[in-house]
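Example record for the data management plan.
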Amino acid sequence: TQNSDQKTIRFYPGSPFLAQSILRAVDKLFLIEWKNDVFSDLKQLMTHDKRATVLHHNGYLALKSLLPPSIRRGLVLIDPPFESNDDFASIA
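Corresponding structural encoding:
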C-alpha cells in the first residue's frame, strides 16, 4: 500500500526524452534505433521536434557516419539494450 503523501511514477521517460529535455533551441538530437517497434514509436513521438532526427539503423554502425558533428562539438550517449552477450564488446 501507499500513503497519500507519496508520488507514483506513472511512466519512465527513457534516455531519448531525458536527452531531449536538456536540448537548447540550436541543438540537434539524433536517435538511432534498430528494433522496428521502438523505432516507430520514437519516430511518432519525436515528429513535432524539428531538432530531433530518428534513424532506423544499427546504432554502433550509424555513429561513425555522424561523427564528428558539423558544429565540431557534441555529446554521444549510448544506451545499449544489453540483450545479447556481446553488447559490452560492441560498445568498445
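Summary line stored alongside the record: Strands lie at 29-33, 52-56.
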